[in-house]
Amino acid sequence: MSHPPHTPDGAAPDPAESHRANLPLPPPEPVDPDLGPELAPSERPESQAPVLLAIALGGGLGAVIRYGATVLWPTPAGSFPWTVLVVNVVGCAAMGVLMALLTEVWPDAPRLTRPFLGTGVLGGFTTFSTYAVDVQTLFDGGSPGRALGTLVLTVAAALAAVAGASWLTRSAVRLGRAEGSLA
Amino acid sequence: MTWLLVVVGGMIGAPCRYLMDRAVQRRHSSGFPWGTLAVNMSGSLVLGVLVGARLTGAAPENLMVFAATGFCGAYTTYSTFSYETLRLAETGARGAAFANVALSVSAALGAAVMGLGVAKAVWGG
């Protein structure tokens, strides 16, 4: 995917942060977090093996952590699926932190960082299918209120988590930089 | 043993998501996260079939752990979905962000309904 028209080239300069003027602009950040600037779709297939392995290992790890959570905090049939909701919200918050750090602080992090942690661990940890099937089985089981609650609350909390965590991380980074430049 | 089934399922699911996402995204240039939508929709279809089969007693526990918890759980993603929605909103494409939420949720739900229905038709009592 070439850089889509609505994705800006680098962060828009903030007049309040003129101390960043001398820093190089970050590389354009695609909408898809699986694609860092180093993982363009045109990348040669033979260099994909380490990436796929990193994703696989991360995915296995994320999945087993999610499974562990459902073992620790099982959801009886028909009750509100709190465990999966918390898993998804925590995973989205972590994604917000990770992507903010990778774009603002460590754009030159090892190239397998994003595939392993983002695509792998967090992608494996969070789940959309369980969410969708849970909503439907709650509805089928005669709990339309819980079904709708699961539906809406998960989306709202997940989006708030990724947005809030991203914003907090960026704010902390900029605060740290401001204090550093005053030294 | 159960944990191992989850790990293996996850190790297959996550790369499949990545490859499917890339395959879909390569075929258009709009920037809209159709890839993740396709992944979440297809994964929800598969999980619907599995859970439907489980409800009729047709699916053994080990298969559920491997295919449902392991594969489908790792194959589908909420973190990529929510991050892509955020990115769309941040880059000024708020309509697309809203559409991503609406389409992703309805497509996955529709697929889950279909999957559950298929399982009931095939294995239902």
TrEMBL record, chain B:
The keyword Zinc does not apply. Na(+) binds at residues 73, 76. It is found in: Cell membrane. The chain crosses the membrane at residues 32-51, 63-81, 101-123. One of its GO terms (molecular function) is metal ion binding. GO terms for cellular component: plasma membrane. GO terms for biological process: cellular detoxification of fluoride. The keyword DNA repair does not apply. Fluoride-specific ion channel. Important for reducing fluoride concentration in the cell, thus reducing its toxicity. This is Fluoride-specific ion channel FluC. It comes from Streptomyces albidoflavus. The gene is crcB.
